[in-house]
Design a protein that fits this description.
The chain is α+β, with helices and mostly antiparallel strands. The protein is about 25% helix and about 30% strand. Bound molecules: adenosine-5'-triphosphate.
Length: about 325
């Protein structure tokens, strides 16, 4: 449905994105994830035809366009902006009608009422935008983006302005909407939990490049490098002493990692006895400074993040790290 090919872009001679390639199939939700300023919105704007100067091409269905070639109206794309971009001087009905200027007045009114019903905002039809809650404003923005029955929805940080309760509900609602109408959606966010919970596929952008683009489960379980692993999950980097003790084959350009949730301490003997030297509470886990008690020759301390659940601190304490949970990946 949507294909981004060799997409590169510079602003004021500074390269922002380089050779980006990915596809979005019909019915698929793809999330572009990356830190602030990495170029996520720029990709959405280019897909919508709002950012015309770029290299490479963008294909929607069978139509491939490079810079400047096709007007955005032809692209069958609905764009939901981060700040919703509703017109403050128009009411709800007028905001949605605005997107339907090609229809007759009668058809326009009919379609607006249909959308207001569909998005459960009919009661707010005549309200001004400032009279709506954040969640209601978002529904108006989505109704406006859906007005022309687009094939592709572009969503820029769609949950950023909602509180956590509403965020969860809206996420599920939006996911169902996209699936029900078999749309393709590209969503951008810097929130990894959001990305993991809504997406079929995730692309991670860093240092101008799309580092990895994969199905959500795959990118989470098989990150190609440390940046991605660290971005998507809470991990421990195994200290050198532990790598040696576990006889792991870790090359110069590699690092060994394990998720915090799989980094356990136990009172059962695992042969990796440690002494807790210090601990700091960090909410979901503790940062624990441990010393290898078996190795008297070294005073080296290692930091491990773990919970202290089911641990008797007065007994001998051991690290419990299952080999199959340790990943060796590129630095
Ligand atoms: N029209 C423009 N002219 C010059 N620089 C621009 C323009 N648009 C974007 N940029 C720059 O390109 C970079 C990427 O911006 P973009 O908005 O795509 O990032 P982002 O990943 O969406 O960030 P955020 O998560 O903070 O919204 C930024 O450094 C930004 O300042």
């Amino acid at each position: 449905m949507l294909s981004i090919n060799n997409f590169s872009i510079s602003f004021n001679e500074t390269k922002i994105l380089e050779d980006i390639n990915f596809d979005v199939k019909q019915g698929e939700i793809v999330t572009l994830l990356g830190s602030s300023g990495c170029g996520k919105t720029t990709i959405l704007r280019a897909i919508a035809g709002l950012q015309k100067e770029h290299d490479g091409n963008i294909c929607i269905g069978d139509t491939c366009v490079s810079s400047k070639e096709v007007y955005k109206q032809d692209r069958e794309v609905g764009y939901i902006f981060q700040d919703y971009a509703l017109f403050p001087h128009l009411n709800v009905e007028e905001n949605i009608s605005f997107a339907l200027d090609k229809l007759s007045k009668k058809d326009r009114n009919k379609r607006v009422d249909q959308l207001l019903e569909q998005f459960d905002i009919i009661a707010h039809k005549h309200k001004q935008i400032h009279q709506l809650s954040g969640g209601q404003q978002q529904r108006v923005a989505i109704a406006r983006a859906m007005a022309n029955k687009p094939k592709i929805l572009l969503l820029d940080e769609p949950f950023a302005n909602l509180d956590s309760q509403l965020r969860y509900k809206t996420k599920m609602w939006l996911k169902n909407l996209i699936k029900k109408y078999n749309l393709s959606a590209v969503l951008v966010t810097h929130d990894k939990k959001e990305a993991l919970s809504i997406s079929d596929k995730i692309g991670i952008i860093h240092n101008k490049k799309l580092l990895q683009f994969d199905a959500t489960q795959d990118i989470y379980s098989k990150p190609v490098n440390f940046y991605i692993a660290n971005f998507l999950s809470e991990i421990n980097i195994l200290p050198k002493a532990l790598i040696e003790k576990l006889e792991l084959n870790v090359k110069e350009n590699q690092t060994a990692i394990i998720e915090i949730s799989k980094s356990k301490l136990t009172n059962k003997n695992t042969l990796l006895e440690v002494e807790i030297v210090d601990k700091s509470f960090c909410g979901e886990y503790y940062e624990i400074l441990v010393k290898d008690v078996k190795n008297n020759e070294t005073d080296e301390l290692s930091m491990i993040k773990s919970t202290l659940e089911n641990i008797d601190l007065n007994e001998k304490i051991y690290l419990d790290l299952k080999r199959e949970n340790i990943k060796i990946i590129l630095k």
